From TrEMBL:
Pfam families: Mur_ligase_C, Mur_ligase_M, MurD_N
Alphabetized UniProt keyword annotations: ATP-binding, Cytoplasm, Ligase, Nucleotide-binding
Record GO terms (molecular function): ATP binding; UDP-N-acetylmuramoylalanine-D-glutamate ligase activity
Cellular component, GO, one term: cytoplasm
Protein name per UniProt: UDP-N-acetylmuramoyl-L-alanyl-D-glutamate synthetase
Superkingdom field: Eukaryota
Location(s), subcellular: Cytoplasm
PANTHER family: UDP-N-ACETYLMURAMOYLALANINE--D-GLUTAMATE LIGASE
Record bears the keyword Cell membrane: no
Length: 445
């Protein structure tokens, strides 16, 4: 009997454990921290042996295969011991993929993943597909392979999840864009992070597709030095393309795919901003490859307004608009957030710095930002970067203080934007917790 050890007791780990039990494997789950009551109940219900509060090494190193949750770095002591003993350490995506015949659409990128993944899933559902949604969003891929019977899956894939694949190959891969992120996990080497993203296409064949941003500098560089067997389908906001999708004059999105040409007027798309038009291009290209009709696509685009915590309009108070962009956890994402602002802006920023270079934000901050509220345990880099160009730069100890302070500085007709540019783990459980606390405090104003 195969012994499967699962490291990590979150959604990814618990989902893998449930699938392992269904397959008849000897499963042991180990969580260094604490397993939540909800996940403990799921493990008990499925008769999964488990521990938390530390790792029992002698139990773990006897594994035939180990699934490592994406939040655990390769440098963790237990992982280095497993690798030294040449015990295979894989991701949940790799494990689940080997136990399903379903088609997968894998979507990665530094920004826009969640919006593109959610929209793609809605488009395929509208087109009548029996399709699941998973990966880095919703229930884990593994749990759904164990408990559902989908014909296809749309998966949001982080670089950490892709680090642990060996044979996984999506039928359709999407790379929304690449910009510096999570460099603390990649020895502060940008090239290692880029390599991780392109693992999504390493096992694709000539019968598969790779949809990508043709405007992205790092993607273009990669193609100069590397190849993929997949059929390339580009999209662009700046250039006319014979194959793929592009933005024409800012007023329409033109598509040329599989011998079919058609256009969608941007006024008929509820999502706003050039970055969102690119997300639409990627999602619609997937939909066309999966045989969704133009009529069905149009219906979805007219009604889909985005996802929670991504440029989410919360409330207007005394003619000041409050926007929750908590999912902006890196510089490029914060650039999108500030670029979308149509008014002068009070910016709430800060958290766990992942090796950020804030210089890219300086032109937008100079143009649009009237005050900065720093919300993090250590705000030194942010203060140093922006104090020379913004008159008001203050610190807040918690979200309640940040929101009240932002109201004090925001003038009539301006916007308060939470677009943190950083991870959330210093003061919050995750970016969702940060965004919900923001909304809660805004509703108290």
């Amino acid at each position: 009997m195969t012994k499967l050890v699962v490291l990590g007791g979150g959604e990814s780990g618990v989902g893998t454990a449930i699938l392992g039990k269904k397959l008849g494997h000897d499963v042991f789950l180990s969580e260094f921290g604490k397993i939540t009551e909800t996940y403990k109940e799921a493990l008990l219900l499925n008769d999964v042996r488990h521990e938390d509060g530390g790792h029992t090494e002698q139990e773990i190193v006897t594994a035939d295969i180990v699934m490592k949750s994406p939040g655990i770095p390769d440098t963790a002591p237990i992982v280095t011991k497993l690798l030294a003993q040449k015990i295979p350490v894989i991701s949940e995506i790799e494990y689940a993929f080997k136990h399903t015949k379903a088609i997968t659409i894998g979507i990665t990128g530094s920004n826009g993943k969640t919006t593109t993944t959610t929209l793609t899933h809605l488009l395929l559902q509208k087109g009548g597909s029996n399709v699941g949604l998973g990966g880095n969003i919703g229930y884990s891929f593994a749990r759904q392979v164990a408990q559902e019977n989908y014909d296809s899956y749309v998966l949001e894939l982080s670089s950490f999840q892709l680090d642990g694949i060996l044979e996984y190959a999506p039928h359709i891969a999407v790379i929304t864009n690449i910009s510096p992120d999570h460099l603390d996990r990649y020895e502060y080497k940008y090239e290692k992070y880029i390599e991780a993203k392109f693992r999504i296409t390493m096992n694709q064949t000539k019968d598969d597709y790779l949809i990508y941003d043709a405007d992205d500098e790092e993607i273009a560089k990669w193609f100069k030095n590397n190849n993929t067997q997949a059929r390339l389908v580009p999209f662009s906001a700046t250039q006319v393309l014979k194959e793929g999708a592009y933005l024409r004059n800012g007023t329409s999105i033109e598509f040329n795919i599989n011998g079919e040409s058609f256009a969608i007027e941007t006024k008929d798309v509820l999502l706003e901003g050039k970055h969102n038009f690119k997300n639409v291009m990627a999602a619609v290209l997937v939909a066309k490859l999966m045989q969704v009709t133009n009529l069905e696509i149009g219906e979805v685009l007219r009604s889909f307004g985005g996802v929670e915590h991504r440029q989410e309009k919360v409330r207007t108070v005394e003619n000041v608009q409050y926007i929750n962009d908590s999912k902006a956890t890196n510089v490029a994402s914060a650039v999108c957030g500030l670029d979308a602002m149509k008014t002068r802006t009070v910016w709430i920023v800060g958290g766990v710095d992942k090796g950020n270079d804030y210089s890219e934000l300086i032109p937008l901050v100079r143009e649009k930002v009237t005050a900065i509220i720093c919300l993090g345990v250590d705000n030194r880099k942010i203060i140093e970067a922006f104090t020379p160009i913004v008159d008001v730069v203050v610190e807040a100890r918690n979200m309640a203080e940040a929101v009240v302070t932002s109201q004090k500085f925001a003038k009539d007709g301006e916007t308060v934007l939470l677009s943190p540019c950083c991870a959330s783990f210093d003061l919050f459980k995750n970016y969702e917790d940060r965004g919900r606390q923001f909304k809660s405090e805004v509703y108290k104003l």
